Every structure is written in structure tokens, then in C-alpha cells.
Amino acid sequence: MIPGFKQSAVGLIPAEWEAKRLGELGSVVRGGSPRPAGDPRYFNGDFIPWLTVAALTNIPDHQLRVTETASALTEEGSKRSRTLVNGTVIIANSGATLGVAKLLGVTCCANDGIAAITNQRSGNKAFVCHYINTRTKRLREVVASGNGQPNLNTALIREIPIPFPPLPEQLAIAGALSDVDALLGALDRLIAKKRDLKQAAMHQLLTGQTRLPGFHGEWEVKRLGTLLRFQVGFPFSSAFFNEKGEGIRLVKNRDLKSDDQIFHYSGKYDEAFVVRDDDVLIGMDGDFRPCLWNKGSALLNQRVGRLVPKEGLNSRFAFYVLIEPLKAIEVVTSSTTVKHLSHGDAEGIEISMPEFPEQAAIAEVLSDMDAELATLAQRRDKTRALKQAMMQELLTGRTRLA
């Protein structure tokens, strides 16, 4: 046993802390949904805000307070639901946000996918929310598991244990974590603003509506096939695929969007299919959005294409200028069972383009904006990691605030 700590229902906690169950803090109740769903007598009214568990998926993790809802109930609908007052702790008891706690910033009615602690007698509400959110994974995988759809009923929620330091310490912990949440919110808003600025810059620069200093010549409309060669990946044998990191990495269609599952290839291959950083790749099934590869040498697998520029085409400019035309092709093919980009589709795209020096200058401006966005995203990720570490330390009493 660690000196100064004691064993409790939530594990080791400081000796002067208590452990309570959520049911001891107030009444645990469940929201109510008018039936039948969608009935105009109850829904799409203007009497009282209507909060659904689905709406919680649109609220960022760092935003503790629910400040608005997407719709409202009629007065008759409110009589068939449950009204929760501003300041109530709510917990999603089903769906994608199961086990996530928030604090109401509005008085509203809630559907039956939301539970709440009403008439709360003790405990700082923000502190309670922060602690519950450290237990979300366990609530989903252990507490709510069972036959059928995972669900937290009110009986299970009442029994959830929570560490309970003295109120001044609860306030200090909640305040520290809320400060980090505020920083995350500010970073999110800054990233969104920078993305909007980049979108506006792309529209202006890639259409010639705005010219960079020193460039004045006319742009020409050219067919992509005259400016590059579209190389299609090779169907490498899956017998040599592995997830152990043996051999060279493969670039599959899914790798253009995520690194969830990386395959390597241990067989023989032609160097002509080796992809390198700054190559422009395009998935040929599903999402045709171009990708500027930056993950080192890899093999171009089937169903992935590479743009091989000829003289006079800047590859980064091609990456940016092709986003919208490829999106248009994706829309046109969306009615097919499997969206497929062909060799001819890519080479047949016509684009208006300046001379090479202006292409390079435009690409540099947009690349700098992307780099700034990446830096901000990394800072946000580090701040999220810092918050997780703070939660682990503060909510268990391992680190105490003076």
C-alpha cells in the first residue's frame, strides 16, 4: 500500500478522499421519447429544445457543456418526454457516445438515449463529468456489455463508483481540466479558420482570380494527358504480404487515408513501381481525392494510380489543382455500385494552368498553409495527450493541487 493512500471501490485514492456511487449524488433518471417518433404533434416544434443522443456525437470531447440542440418539441411533445434543467449532468446510455458525460447549458427535453443526475445534492458537476469521461471505455466494454445492443440502464449508472475529494479540491481539479479544454477549443477554432482561409486561397489562386506578385501571363487550358503519364499500380502477389514490417511497404487504396493496417511486401519487385515522397497518388476505387505521399519509399499496389509529370508540370501544383476535378468525377460515378476511376478519366481532365514558375509559386503558398495546419494539428494532439495525463494524475490523487 502506498503511504497516504487507501484502497476503495475506484482503486487507490488519497486517505482523506471518499468513494461514492453516482446514485448517492442525486436521482439517476432516463430521458423520454414521445411516440410515435416523428409525429408532428410532438416534434419539430418551438416550445422547448430537444436533445437526442445522436446530437452528442457532434459535440467535441473537450466541450463539456451542451449549449444548443438541433431541434425542438411542441408543448404536447414536452409532456411525453422528460425536461432537464440547465446545469444537469447527463450521460449517454446508448449509441456511439455511450458513457460520455456532458453538462447541460440549456433547459431541454432529452430522449431515452440520455440519462441524467437530477436533484444533485453533492459533488462539483464538472468534476463528476470529467471523471465519468475517464471511464467511458470501461463503461462501453464491461459495464454495458451483454446480449444485444450495449446499454447503460439507470440501475447500472447508479452503481458507478467515483472518487470524491473535498469540494475545494474537486473545484481545483475541474478548473485545471477546464482550462485545458478551453485551449483545445481555441485550437479547434483556429484550425477551422485556417482551413477556411486555405480553401479561399485555393479557389483564388488555382483559378487565376488572384495572381501572385510578378506573374501576369495568360493561362492555357490543357488536357492532363499531355502533361503527365498516369501510372497504375501492379497486382503484387498477396502471398508475400505481411504485417511484420518485413520488406518494403505497400501503398494500397486505404493507405491514402489512414495507417490503420499497414502491409509490407517481401517478394521481388520492379523499381518502376517504387513510390517516393512528394509523389501524387490517387485511389482508383471509392474516394478519388489525390494524396501527396510523405511516408517514405513504398510499392504502388493495384487500384492506386500515380501521376508522373512531364516537363512543364509542377507535381504539387497538380496535386492541388486536381482536387476539384477528381471530386466531380467521383460525384458522376457515385450512382455505380463501386466508384471506379479509369486511366482515361484522369488523363482526360482539362485544367487551366499558368507557366511552370507560377505553378511552383502557387504550390509553395498552399504547401506553407498546409504545413501551418499540420503544426497546429500536432499541437492539438499534444494538448489532448497532456489532458489525458492530467486526468489520470489529478482524478486519482496521484498529483495534488495546492
Strand order of the largest sheet: 4-12-9-10-6
- Which percent range fits the helix content? 25-40%
Residue fraction in strands: 15-25%
Overall geometry: elongated
Largest sheet: 5 strands, mixed
Mean pLDDT over the residues? 93
Class derived from helix and strand content: alpha+beta
Count of separate DSSP helical elements: 10
Please count the beta strands (DSSP E, at least 2 residues each).
24
Gyration radius, in Å: 27 Å
Low-confidence region ranges: none
Cα distance, first to last residue? 24 Å
Q: What would you say this structure looks like, in words?
A:
By secondary structure, the protein is α+β, with helices and mostly antiparallel strands. The chain has helices at residues 22-25, 75-78, 125-134, 136-143, 154-158, 167-206, 315-321, 323-332, 343-347, 356-394; strands at residues 5-8, 11-14, 18-21, 27-30, 43-51, 65-66, 71-73, 82-84, 89-92, 101-104, 108-110, 114-118, 161-164, 220-223, 228-232, 241-242, 248-251, 264-265, 274-275, 280-283, 290-292, 298-300, 304-309, 350-353. Helix 6 (167-206) packs antiparallel against helix 10. The longest helix is centred in the middle third of the chain and has 40 residues, at 167-206. It is elongated, with a radius of gyration of 27 Å. The mean pLDDT is 93.
